[in-house]
Amino acid sequence: MIAFDGEVIKLMPLGGRRVRLDNGHMITVLPSLGAQTGVSLLGDPVTVEIAFNQLKGWRLSRQP
């Protein structure tokens, strides 16, 4: 599993978030299913991750 730290910059429909990673890239993430990640607001630091076999994209895993 690959994980990156970033910051929420936009709230999207259906729980999606637009996140700017620490390396400057911007990605769209979905909340992790079955996990209590809490509510992330604009400007919140978050950790996003993707599994090697995951085809659907990034997911919001936790907030530091």
Automatic annotation (TrEMBL):
Record protein name field: Uncharacterized protein
Species name: Brevundimonas vesicularis (Pseudomonas vesicularis)
